[in-house]
Amino acid sequence: xxxxxxxxxxxxxxxxxxxxxxxxxxxxxxxxxxxxxxxxxxxxxxxxxxxxxxxxxxxxxxxxxxxxxxxxxxxxxxxxxxxxxxxxxxxxxxxxxxxxxxxxxxxxxxxxxxxxxxxx
Length: 120
Hints:
By secondary structure, the protein is mainly alpha-helical. Helices cover 39% and strands 3% of the residues. It contains 4 helices and 2 strands, in the order H-H-H-E-E-H. A two-stranded antiparallel ribbon has the order 1-2.
């Protein structure tokens, strides 16, 4: 369930907690050579071994969890028209925080350069 912040939006901290719970649930039966627990800087590919199907499944779980079907995940999953080599929990949290908390004009916004700032 979505928890609101002081302005009625979803706090970034709540989003991070939701993502950690969703990813932990997804990966609980995986044989991971990863220790330290899932947190904001955890890389889905480098740390958890996510493949494209796993990302698709996570996106589906996020849609279901937040009750949102048309979130523009291409803004976080694509960099310069190609799939991002790495996606961190913090990248997803930043993206969702913007998308779930609409700006004053009623349109979601995303910082310039997408997740992680500039692309390289």
